[in-house]
Design the sequence.
């Protein structure tokens, strides 16, 4: 996977992970992948819903030791 | 313009009094569809916060000015952000302090009635999740039935009445919410009663509820009588209080009946559920006031915010009590069941004492409606 950018949003509460992800992806090129790490459980559903609403693609996601990682391709 | 927080209790009172209220719910669409603040006087608009970050001008005309507008999200962070944006556009708005988590935890007490032998029975309405708990007060003592994990509400209420909590009872091992029973019993030294058939795997000491035994509260003659009434779980037990009230647990609700699939296989317990509802309950006095452990829709709340109905009325009106054909009954309670409550397996494990999640995890586990009924 060609990851263009990594965003560390660990420790941030809603709505900050999505606010930061949105800001970062705005500065990226279409087709590039953003990796986002969060610890807020609410971010799991919100990240998918935001990606869909923004026309981006959730390529993959995982949970490991309380850290959620998302890979989102800019649409 | 101003942003003022409202606490869950403010909103609960408005819902009960049917005061007009407009909820701008900024959670994602799935969360909103799954579970929201409901009420006859409540209007909704659901737009996720991430679709409003570029500005809120385009939704202003959808927000009324003749009633309070409350921005709501899961915890409160996003609702404050959006409320601030609306305020900058010249609107007076509120946000729900603590978000849907606080809504889920709020308990509203209601007096059900006085007892013949002296004393009072109270109901605690968990309006956001549909759970109902009870406190039976008589002769300076109190018994609590189906307590939620917000235990300080019950202990503070007992303190205010100046009564001592001596018995804590659960009608069954709950699958939709974490019981506060054990914690209250430990804190107050009260006896903790559970149906033994539901408690075969619990990791702590309890007193077994047995059909026909008598539990006395205070020095009065007021009695709690357990009745074995399986079907929702194998141990489900109902209580007749003061020969006037039937605490039916998750077996019989106002407009629905208990589902038999949350603690095992629905198929195995259908017959138990049938016998409980169509034989054991039929043999009881129709004058008994049924007090269930849940309400399902907000319309079940009476004017004063409480939930109850005469057993005789339920025999006449509750569809689940009026299915003559056993096959049809079996089909109703085993086919096309609604989704199970959120994290119901983990909730059962917690109530058995097998796992001890931290408070934040407990809150997450209880998110959503109770979903204990079939209609």
Sequence:
């Amino acid at each position: 996977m060609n990851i263009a950018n990594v965003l560390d949003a660990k420790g941030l509460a809603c709505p900050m992970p999505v606010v930061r992800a949105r800001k970062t992806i705005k500065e990226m090129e279409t087709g590039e992948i953003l990796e986002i790490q969060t610890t807020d459980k609410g971010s799991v559903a919100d990240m998918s819903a935001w990606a869909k609403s923004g026309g981006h693609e959730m390529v993959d996601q995982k949970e490991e030791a309380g850290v959620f990682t998302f890979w989102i391709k800019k649409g | 313009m101003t942003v003022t927080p409202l606490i869950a209790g403010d909103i609960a009172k408005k819902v009960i009094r049917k005061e007009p209220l407009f909820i701008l719910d900024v959670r994602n669409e799935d969360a909103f569809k799954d579970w929201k603040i409901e009420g006859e006087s409540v209007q909704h608009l659901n737009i996720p916060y991430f679709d409003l970050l570029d500005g809120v001008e385009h939704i202003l005309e959808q927000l009324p000015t003749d009633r309070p507008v409350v921005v709501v999200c899961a915890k409160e962070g996003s609702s404050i952000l959006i409320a601030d944006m609306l305020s900058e556009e010249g609107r007076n708005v509120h946000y729900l302090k603590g978000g849907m988590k606080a809504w889920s935890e709020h308990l509203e007490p209601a007096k059900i009635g006085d007892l013949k032998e002296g004393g009072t029975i109270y109901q605690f309405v968990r309006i956001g999740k549909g759970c109902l708990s009870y406190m039976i007060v008589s002769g300076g003592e109190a018994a609590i039935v189906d307590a939620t994990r917000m235990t300080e509400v019950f202990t503070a209420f007992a303190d205010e009445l100046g009564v001592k909590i001596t018995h804590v009872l659960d009608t069954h091992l709950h699958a939709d919410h974490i019981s506060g029973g054990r914690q209250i019993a430990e804190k107050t030294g009260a006896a903790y009663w559970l149906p033994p058939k539901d408690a075969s795997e619990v990791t702590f000491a309890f007193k077994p509820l047995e059909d026909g035994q008598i539990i006395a509260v205070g020095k009065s003659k007021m009695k709690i009588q357990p009745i074995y009434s399986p079907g929702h779980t194998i141990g489900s037990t109902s209580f007749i209080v003061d020969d006037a009230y039937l605490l039916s647990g998750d077996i019989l609700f106002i407009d629905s009946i208990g589902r038999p699939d949350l603690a095992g296989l629905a198929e195995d317990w259908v017959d138990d559920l049938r016998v409980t509802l169509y034989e054991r309950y039929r043999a009881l006095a129709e004058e008994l006031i049924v007090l269930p452990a849940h309400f399902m829709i907000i319309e079940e709340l009476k004017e004063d915010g409480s939930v109850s109905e005469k057993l005789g009325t339920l025999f006449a009106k509750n569809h689940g009590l009026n299915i003559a054909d056993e096959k049809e009954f079996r089909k109703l309670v085993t086919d096309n069941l609604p989704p199970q409550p959120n994290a119901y397996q983990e909730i059962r494990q917690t109530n058995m004492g097998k796992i001890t999640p931290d408070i934040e995890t407990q809150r997450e586990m209880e998110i959503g409606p109770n979903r204990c009924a079939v209609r």
